[in-house]
């Protein structure tokens, strides 16, 4: 059904975290998801090896530029959602994944310096859209934001993006230990040991709001096409 890619040439912007949160949240709601691991660091694959995969999730590993389109299209026949975790660079895999995606999410930390990686990928997305003569829906999602306050630098970056006509999600992914620990422990976010990891409920709620907003965008898109 839907192909969603995570793209930002900046490493550490939250691509892999967003990919995993979206996939596990959709699976928890009964959906089926393929996670395409196109990052040579293989974080998604390593996560998958730590524990049994949650129901509804499959992982396709070691995906490179020469096979990414085939792997995505094969996955699309098997599961309702295909979520592509891309490398932190602007390479051929990234360009190809952008070209085939229904939605490109651009995870970005909310500082001016960090948002420059986001700006670069948005330029690439827009060039691809022109080349392909189709819209490539995309949106920035702010990551690792403060739970307590809306920082000045985040407000500033939000303003800059609004001025540049760049869509941003209302929900941001807050900085939380649970989002790190799930990669150390494996499995699903709500199953983390609540006595060892703080804020699991809040993290799970945050992931839920994130998924709600992404799914709402996809729904609007499919209605527009219909
Ligand atoms: N919301 C978050 N809260 C806490 N840690 C985070 C969060 N998002 C990312 N991280 C941590 O930051 C690092 C980079 O995040 P990651 O998702 O791997 O980014 P990318 O895939 O863009 O390189 C990882 O160590 C990850 O665990
Ligand atoms: Mg990554």
From TrEMBL:
Checking SUPFAM superfamilies in the record gives: P-loop containing nucleoside triphosphate hydrolases
Q: Do you know which InterPro entries this protein is assigned to?
A: CobQ/CobB/MinD/ParA_Nub-bd_dom, DNA_Partitioning_ATPase, P-loop_NTPase
Q: Which residues form the CobQ/CobB/MinD/ParA nucleotide binding domain?
A: 4-181
Which residues does UniProt call coiled coil? Answer: none
List the PANTHER family: COBQ_COBB_MIND_PARA NUCLEOTIDE BINDING DOMAIN-CONTAINING PROTEIN (PTHR13696:SF96), P-LOOP CONTAINING NUCLEOSIDE TRIPHOSPHATE HYDROLASE (PTHR13696)
Name used for this protein in its record = ParA family protein
Q: Supply the source organism for this entry.
A: Ruegeria sediminis
């Amino acid at each position: 059904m839907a192909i969603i890619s995570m793209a930002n040439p900046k490493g550490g912007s939250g691509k892999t975290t967003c990919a995993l949160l979206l996939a596990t949240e959709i699976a928890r709601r009964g959906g089926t998801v393929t996670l395409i691991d196109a990052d040579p660091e293989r974080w998604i694959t390593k996560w998958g090896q730590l524990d049994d995969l949650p129901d509804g999730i499959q992982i396709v590993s070691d995906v490179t530029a020469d096979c990414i389109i085939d792997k995505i299209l094969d996955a699309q026949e098997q599961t309702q959602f295909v979520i592509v975790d891309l490398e932190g660079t602007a390479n051929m895999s990234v360009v190809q994944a952008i070209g085939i995606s229904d939605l490109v999410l651009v995870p970005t930390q909310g500082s001016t310096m960090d948002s420059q990686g986001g700006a670069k990928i948005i330029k690439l997305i827009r060039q691809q859209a022109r080349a392909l003569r189709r819209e490539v829906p995309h949106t920035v999602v702010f990551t690792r934001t403060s739970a307590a306050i809306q920082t000045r630098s985040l407000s500033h970056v939000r303003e800059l993006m609004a001025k540049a006509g760049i869509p941003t999600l209302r929900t941001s992914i807050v900085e939380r230990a649970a989002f790190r620990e799930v990669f150390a422990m494996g499995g699903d976010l709500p199953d983390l040991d609540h006595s060892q990891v703080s804020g699991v409920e809040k993290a799970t709620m945050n992931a839920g709001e994130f998924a709600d907003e992404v799914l709402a965008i996809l729904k609007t898109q499919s209605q527009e096409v219909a």
